[in-house]
């Protein structure tokens, strides 16, 4: 009975992995995708698929995330047969700390667009040195929202949308679902800023 249970779980996991991979493979190069997640596992399942698909397609990958999520993502990628350290060494994988990067262009939770563009344009330039197509994941918006900077979060999403449009960038943003309805008007603005919703 327990062995059968494990088989069912394994089959479900394989099915879900294929669905996640199929979703990211069919996304347009210029996409601003939003995920509202209920657990870190749901976030990391989607993020692993987003990154793994990019590596397989020869994209450069920019990951702007919390330390715990970067660590778990690297563990998952290694388990799936990728080498995050080698990808970083060849310039294909750029893992960055979300809080540190956010501090470079915000004051008291308010983003400055000129400084933001300077920071992000520099990252994209690095990423495109050897890889013309770039995809990025960002948790900076999630950090702003968690700190109660709702208007600033909506503004940052609009700034990201302009970056996506100007650079033909695929961008994946994620927020914990818990607390996302704390400011409904700004949550609606954030949803409207995205071109796609992640179904996972």
From TrEMBL:
Pfam families: MEDS. The lineage of its organism: Bacteria, Pseudomonadati, Pseudomonadota, Betaproteobacteria, Burkholderiales. InterPro entries: MEDS_domain. This is MEDS domain-containing protein. Residues 31-183 form the MEDS domain.
């Amino acid at each position: 009975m327990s062995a059968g249970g494990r088989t069912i779980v394994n089959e479900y996991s394989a099915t879900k992995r294929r669905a996640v991979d199929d979703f990211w493979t069919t996304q347009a190069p210029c996409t601003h995708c939003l995920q509202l997640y209920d657990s870190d596992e749901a976030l990391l399942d989607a993020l692993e698929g987003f990154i793994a698909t990019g590596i397989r397609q020869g994209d450069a990958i920019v990951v702007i995330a919390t330390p715990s999520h970067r660590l778990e993502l690297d563990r998952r990628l290694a388990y799936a047969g990728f080498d995050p350290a080698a990808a970083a060494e060849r310039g294909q994988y750029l893992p960055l700390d979300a809080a540190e990067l956010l501090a470079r262009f915000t004051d008291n939770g308010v983003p400055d667009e000129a400084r933001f563009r300077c920071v992000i344009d520099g990252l994209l330039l690095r990423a495109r040195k050897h890889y013309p197509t770039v995809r990025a994941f960002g948790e900076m918006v999630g950090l702003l929202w968690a700190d109660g900077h709702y208007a600033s979060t909506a503004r940052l999403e609009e700034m990201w949308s302009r970056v996506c449009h100007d650079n033909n960038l695929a961008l994946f943003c994620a927020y914990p679902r818990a607390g996302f309805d704390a400011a409904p008007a700004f949550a609606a603005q954030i949803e409207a800023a995205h071109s796609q919703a992640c179904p996972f």
